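Try it yourself: sequence plus flavin-adenine dinucleotide, in.
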Amino acid sequence: MRCGIIGAGLGGLLAGIGLFKGGNDVKIFEKLPYPGGRFTNMEYRGYQLSTGALHMIPHADNGPLAMLLNTLGIDAKIVPSKPHGLFRVNGRDYLSHELLSLFSIKEKVRLTRLMADLKFGSGDDTPYRDWLKKRIDNRLAYKITDSFCGWSLSIDSSRISSNEFIAITKNINRLAGPGIPIGGCKGITDRLVKMFERSGGTIYLKSPVKSINIDDGRATGISTDEGEFDFDIIISNIGHVATVELCGKKNFKKDYIDSLRNVQESAGIKISVGCSKPMLGHSGVLFTPQTERINGLNEVTNTDPSLAPKGKHLLMSHQMLDTRDTGRNVKKEIDLGIEDLYNLFPDFDRYCEILMVQTYRNGWPVNRSASGHYIDPQSPVEGLYYVGDSIKPCGWMETEGVATGVEIALDKILGRGWRLGGG
Ligand SMILES: Cc1cc2nc3c(=O)[nH]c(=O)nc-3n(C[C@H](O)[C@H](O)[C@H](O)COP(=O)(O)OP(=O)(O)OC[C@H]3O[C@@H](n4cnc5c(N)ncnc54)[C@H](O)[C@@H]3O)c2cc1C
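Structure, out:
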């Protein structure tokens, strides 16, 4: 089959290699001058900053992304973080199981029941915050939950269903995590690009796709500035909204367009900081429930020192940005984030300098659809499929969701045999 992929992000690259394994001819079209999308590095004064992700994989070397990389023959190394996470409360850092010591005996009983519900129960469409409030009335418990949601999903607990949150918790209990890829995000996407090109695939950079050609309800090709390309299958890595635009809305039923309107992106702000000494001193996440805006930080150079100049460290903070509140002043949100850094680290000026502040929203978000909105990888147009973080299946965060979605898309296109290289 002749396969065309729109977008050379993580989703497009994984799908491209999978299609090759299934014995197909694959071309990728990328509008930017580099591949990797929101999952690659950009060098800045010797630091390996990123175009998006915080150089972390949610379930380290044990999750769907690591498994898919292995199936595709990619030898990327993902080092599990130690500890996985700490929570800073009243100036002290707690492991998750130590947090119970912060609550009264009555609340400890409630929290223990809540943990059991998370482990063995199931949820529904109601927001997780409501689910939590039915079980415990405690502000610190809500803030701890929101710091986890803000860091991991870039939404707060009122925007995720109890069903999705519980599924995510079960996967964390089962698979643990997170971990840091050696070489950062680029350590993975560079290897994917090399494998794709070695297999005979072509990536056309600086080649934005202008339209998807549809003939009698079937996707037949794409148009770019270089000309028209005919394909048997088209895979879009650019999200459902942009894909529908490229096809033209007239090719979809109104119900479908309406259903996509409910799907919202998640937005956020990342602050990258260069440090002359380790500010965290470990490779896990520091969740910050008591800050004004920042949800958490990591210091990836404790695992991979090559991500900063010799003797320096790369510290990154992340804070969710609520785009439903259109009046929200982004500059003010950034200032509040920076103020948090100064409050968290009283010696900030002495050891740290802010390298870059990046805002992610409007077409370059944290997630094209916030966790909990599953979209079928098979679009209603015959021969047109989606991959990427707009189609994360239930329970799978971030790039684990991208990998799971790619597998489902490939199964639909090729049948399960592609894993064996047989098509
Ligand atoms: C601040 C931040 C922190 C994050 N932290 C983490 C983390 O630590 N761990 C984690 O697992 N995930 C994290 N994520 C999420 C992760 O980065 C994304 O889920 C993942 O990179 C999405 O990959 P994708 O392939 O779906 O999309 P993208 O990377 O966006 O790829 C889509 C590609 O399509 C291209 N494109 C768009 N339109 C066109 C067109 N018309 N023609 C051709 N090409 C086009 C784009 O340029 C882009 O390269 C984070 C994201 C952000 C923003």
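One thing you can check immediately is this: The pocket of flavin-adenine dinucleotide is lined by residues 6-12, 29-32, 37-39, 52-54, 56-58, 208-209, 237-238, 242, 268, 270, 318, 360, 366-367, 388-389, 398-399, 402 (CB under 6 Å).
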